[in-house]
Amino acid sequence: MEDVARLAGVSTATVSRTLRGLPNVSEETRGRVLQAAESLSYVVSPIASRLASGRTHTVGVIVPYASRWFFGQIVAGAESVLREHSLDLLLYNLGDIPARQRFFGQLPLRRRVDAVLTVAMQFTDAEMSAMRSLGVPIVAVGHHVPGAGCVRIDDVAAAATAVQHLLGLGHKRIGMISTYNDQSMFLPVAHARRRAYVETLAAAGVPFNGELVMSVPHGMDGGEQAMRRLLTLADPPTAVFAESDELAFGALSALRRTGRHVSVIGFDDHELSALLDLTTVRQRVFEQGVLAAGMLRRAMTTSDWSPEELLMPTTLVLRASTWPVAVRTPDAG
Amino acid sequence: MEDVARLAGVSTATVSRTLRGLPNVSEETRGRVLQAAESLSYVVSPIASRLASGRTHTVGVIVPYASRWFFGQIVAGAESVLREHSLDLLLYNLGDIPARQRFFGQLPLRRRVDAVLTVAMQFTDAEMSAMRSLGVPIVAVGHHVPGAGCVRIDDVAAAATAVQHLLGLGHKRIGMISTYNDQSMFLPVAHARRRAYVETLAAAGVPFNGELVMSVPHGMDGGEQAMRRLLTLADPPTAVFAESDELAFGALSALRRTGRHVSVIGFDDHELSALLDLTTVRQRVFEQGVLAAGMLRRAMTTSDWSPEELLMPTTLVLRASTWPVAVRTPDAG
DNA sequence: TCCTCGGATGTAAGCGTTTGCAGGGTTGGT
DNA sequence: ACCAACCCTGCAAACGCTTACATCCGAGGA
Questions:
Q1: Which residues have C-beta within 8 Å of that of residue B138, sequence separation ≥ 6?
Q2: Residue with CA nearest C10 C1'?
Q3: Which of A122, A154, A167 lies closest to A322, judged by CA?
Q4: Position A317 confidence tier, pLDDT thresholds 50, 70, 90
Q5: Are A125 and A134 in contact (CB under 8 A)?
Q6: Mean model confidence pLDDT for chain B
Q7: Nearest partner of A300 among A105, A134, A129, judged by Cα
Q8: Mean of the pLDDT values across residues A97-109?
Q9: Do B220 and A252 touch (CB under 8 A)?
Q10: Which helix (H) or strand (E) holds A47?
């Protein structure tokens, strides 16, 4: 920077001001500085700049399962807008309890980020106050977090739509593949969708039957395992609501391998769902990442930002994996 | 840091030495410092530390298509080991020419990273010298880059295996779905697999037929489109080699929708390939990311590191999407 | 003509670490 | 008892920027 200043015949202060586009630099000086910087192919050291200014130009992103499709989409969406504004994105994967404890114990985000994005994570009070102690704005995707901005869908309503679809086809024995279990108080989405399942059945006068609800780890394997177990029941379900398309894929796999026929509805509209003809509830995931990042930017640049809330629509997408209860085989095509 | 030093009754220098685990601090002092830091819940500012030490603790990762499965896996694999050593990962997506030009024009990695990981990218001489000017070690995944470390498979041999499999089933009219085209000199993998296709057919005495080779954009859509075009030929292929599983998924989709039957073999062993019963060539992608990150670490910590080369094995995975040429329908199951 | 006001620059004090160098004890060999 | 050789520790100078504050200068206004 000194070299540039010398070449342009100004002080480093003026160079700094020019390079950051501050207003009070004369056109003529600006030109000379830019040219000097260009000819020396100089770029500011982001690290020094961050130390001096106190702004990190980095946002922390906290996800529970980085490799799942949903989270990948969110992160990709957020990344696309952050990159555009040359903000760095620091990803933290808090999949298991130890990782979580380590994270909140050390709080490695301290002094490292200007804002935080959390994706489908529920926090305890202690964790929440740790987060707040960072002193930066927080935006949550997928669920409401007190004091934070929020981009989400109405999980309960959307899941209810899925169950209603099955009810509308005449199904009464409706199973659910869920990732929720009593130890995992950390999965608000799983909780909401499961609640919708229970309540929608109740509203339709269908008695709740615990053996039709499978709790499994997320992913295709989990879905396959859940469906296999459902099929071993004395009276298996005629339709199944899977908490996510990936679980549904596993369920379809189990059905294909066993040659059985059960209606399956998923949730998300994964990019491969069309190929597998999976009926599902579509939500625009990538876009939620984009919107959340936009909200983050607003939060970082607006001094008196107050949490915004965005509710995204969902759509029931009808495909060939669900059919009326009377029919025992899918009307393929 | 000053507070900690005061509380522990030592200088900031000693605090710094203690917190970084340097050897020349007495056990007793170390204990006091650690306790003081603990009680003040103090963590060092990575930014100040980086400025002072000159080490960024960050590795730059350059990919052409961040959202594709393959690249996602590589990044996830690398991330898992980098995070473990508390190294940051800065992701750059250089999908299109403008992004690429901007990147090499500004070289935003300058002064920002201690090492670089490039994934399946080919560089021009100018780009290569720009990369070298960063003065940090480089590791490439998926293809050889002069002067850089390398983790890859033998693309030509693996693709040849796929084509030989089809030949072995008696197929002569073998199509290929490729992402290679003459403008995209930047896709070494596409190039290698296409070359293997041409050479393997030639070695088997099967004449090359240009109309059987489709060049499409990557992804399911591209695969679907390619297969549809192949099916409109007067004499369509009886088998198709897709450059990746995602392209193959698209091809399967087209086949399903048109009710036609063509053997399809993919490449990668995507996690959904088993569900779709896709014959494919398996490579361990996540692991390649892990190994590459390990190599990066070695490069960063070893003063006289010289590029290593790792060749990973591939396996032909037989499933139900390929069958002998005589039979016109798959022997499902 | 004198004074005020505002925009363009320069000066220099941070920002919070790391690290070369020096000082001050100890230890052990002679 | 003396000195070299160590091990700990503290001092203070970077690291490469940003930014509050001071300075300078020309333009108006009275």
A1: B115, B116, B117, B118, B131, B132, B145, B147, B148, B149
A2: A11
A3: A167
A4: very high
A5: no
A6: 92
A7: A134
A8: 86
A9: no
A10: helix A46-53
Amino acid at the residue B276: L
Note whether A1 and A36 are within 8 A (CB): no
Q: Which of B156, B148, B250 minimizes the C-alpha distance to B194?
A: B156
Q: Do A275 and B112 touch (CB under 8 A)?
A: no
b (16+ CB within 10 A) / e for B203-216: eeeeeeeeebbbbb
Contact A276 B275 (CB under 8 A): yes
Instruction: Tell me the residue ranges of DSSP E strands in chain A.
Output: 58-63, 88-93, 115-119, 138-141, 149-153, 174-178, 213-215, 239-242, 263-265, 280-283, 309-312, 314-317
Q: What is the rounded average pLDDT of the residues A237-266?
A: 96
Q: Which long-range contacts does B121-129 make (Cβ < 8 Å, 24+ apart)?
A: B121/B62, B121/B63, B121/B64, B121/B94, B121/B186, B121/B188, B122/B185, B122/B186, B122/B187, B122/B188
**H/E element holding B32?**
helix B27-39
What single letter denotes the amino acid at residue A283? Answer: Q
Whether A17 sits with its Cβ under 7 A from any strand D atom: the answer reads yes
3-state secondary structure of B8: helix
pLDDT band at B241 (very low <50, low <70, confident <90, very high): very high
The amino acid occupying position B288 is Q
Nearest residue to A271 via CA among B187, B222, B318, B120: B222
Tell me how far apart the alpha carbons of residues A103 and A131 are, in angstroms, rounded to a whole number.
Answer: 10
CA distance A65 to A141: 14
